[in-house]
Write a sequence for this structure.
């Protein structure tokens, strides 16, 4: 099986993440290291992230706690808003909420079906993105 991949980039105070394929603990550890390295450019001030999950095909259970720990770390390093973009999918919602529940009050988490909705909401929260789409 080919395991998943990801891309991370920054636009102003927003980390933009795209997740692809199935994840295991190896890819999760790589992602977490790159996430924290990238966050160093952001956590001098409040920041947000937007994550695209439509092309993500879930992860092995051993990814859940490390990702939860990473998100707790992010909140402790000034991440205030988190956006999840994906079409309705009960399994994704279940696993993502095991990683960090949308009801968590440590920061604001929202789920949207389209990137336009997600970026518009971030803009309403004063997180402006100059180039929302990935340039291939």
């Amino acid at each position: 099986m080919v395991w998943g991949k990801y891309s991370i980039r920054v636009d102003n105070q927003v980390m933009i993440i795209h997740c692809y394929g199935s994840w295991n603990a190896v890819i999760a550890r790589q992602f977490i290291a790159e996430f924290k390295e990238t966050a160093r450019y952001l956590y001098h001030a409040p920041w947000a992230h937007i994550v695209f999950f439509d092309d993500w095909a879930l992860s092995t259970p051993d990814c859940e706690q490390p990702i939860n720990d990473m998100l707790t770390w992010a909140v402790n390093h000034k991440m205030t808003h988190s956006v999840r973009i994906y079409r309705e999918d009960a399994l994704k919602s279940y696993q993502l909420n095991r990683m960090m529940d949308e009801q968590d009050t440590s920061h604001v988490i929202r789920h949207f079906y389209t990137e336009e909705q997600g970026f518009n909401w971030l803009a309403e929260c004063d997180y402006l993105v100059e180039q929302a789409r990935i340039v291939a």
Remarks:
- The chain is about 35% helix and 30% strand.
- The chain has a mean pLDDT of 90.
- The CA atoms of residues 33 and 70 lie 9 Å apart.
- The first strand starts at residue 5 and ends at 11.
